[in-house]
Amino acid sequence: MDTITRRIRLLQMIPRKEDGYITIPQMHQRLITRFELENLERRTLERDMAILSHQFAIECDDSCRPFHWYWFGKELVDIPAMGRDTALAFLLVKDYLTPILPRAALSSLSQHFNRAANTLKDGKTSAAQWKKRVRIIPRYYHPLPASVSKPVLHAVDNALYNQRKLEIEYRSLERIRNNEPARTYILNPVMLLYRNTYSELLAYVDGRQSLHRFVLHRMKKATVLDRPISKNPPMRQIEDEMEKHIAYPESGQLIKLKAWIATSDVYHVMDTPLHKDQSLVQVEDGFIVEAEVRLTSSFIWWVLGMGAKLKVISPPELKNKIKSIINDMNALYQK
């Protein structure tokens, strides 16, 4: 293996600081194993690393034996250079996935985002034009997102990412209504939920068995504790409990919906069916739609959003609930 190829291989082996380090013996062993370089001496690699560390943002922690090597700083070396399609993918990730990425990952990706922006900066390539011509538009009106303090967001993110306990000062809606102060909890974080305009942390409270949700914007303070979480059940169990008690306000149960829908608005369920086995039958003044749906608050909002273009026929519990809401609205607007 010639010198240039060997040094490129070394550059590829070195991790960024946040991902750990590598030592000369480890590099030596990898090169021998992968490329059968039996005559390669460690001294050669030591000279290579001394040269590379002066040319690139590579640092050496010489307080350890053997020395620890890692990338450090904001310089990013791409061999080969980042392509236009890759750059487009990174910028779309930045635009649409930033809310659900951990802060640590975003920090690491920042250099890739910058490189991607530079790659497409002339704006004339097909990839650059694609970014300008594709948008995600919400179907329904979304209010402004709830405000969450950065220290709270970072602490929650850190605790979830590293599976550490989290101490929070939390003022629930009930305490706000009763004008009561915040309460302290020790949490075992499980999952973050994003609901368009606000976020919730699902967690087990120390000393309790059931899963609870905590809205991030009601956390007054959050501190990551240097203690591993003590309750971490299988993900299938978490998802089952979440579906039953948390993810679906209202009952969350499956119901068999039968409803009348106006001809002018039937495209809502034609283009985007309520269920894969939905049936749609034309009647004199519209259509009858039947489908199995989950009874959630978002589904009730959807029914109400259809206004006078949709009428629930069954089940009677849902029909009566919709009637009650409409009666309350009517009484409110009579004032």
What does this structure look like?
By secondary structure, the protein is of the alpha+beta class. The chain folds into four domains: 3-71; 84-133, no CATH class; 150-245; 254-334, no CATH class. 41% of the residues lie in helices and 23% in strands. It is built from twelve helices and eleven strands. The strands form three sheets. A five-stranded antiparallel sheet has the order 6-5-4-3-7, sandwiched between helices. It has a four-stranded antiparallel sheet with strand order 9-10-8-11, with helices on one face. Helix 4 packs parallel to helix 6. The longest helix has 19 residues, at 316-334. The protein is elongated.
In short:
The protein has four domains: 3-71; 84-133, no CATH class; 150-245; 254-334, no CATH class. It contains twelve helices and eleven strands. It has helices spanning 3-13, 24-35, 42-55, 84-97, 103-119, 126-133, 150-162, 173-177, 235-245, 267-271, 297-305, 316-334, and strands at residues 58-61, 68-71, 164-170, 183-194, 199-205, 211-215, 219-228, 254-261, 279-283, 286-294, 310-314.
Task: Give short descriptive properties of this protein.
335 residues; 4 domains; 4-stranded antiparallel sheet; 12 helices
Strand order within the widest beta sheet: 6-5-4-3-7
Q: Separation of termini? A: 86 Å
Query: How big a fraction of the residues is strand?
Result: 15-25%
What is the chain-wise order of helices and strands?
A: HHHEEHHHHEHEEEEHEHEEHEH
- Percent helix range: 40-55%
Helix/strand/pairing class, anyone? alpha+beta
Main sheet overview: 5 strands, antiparallel
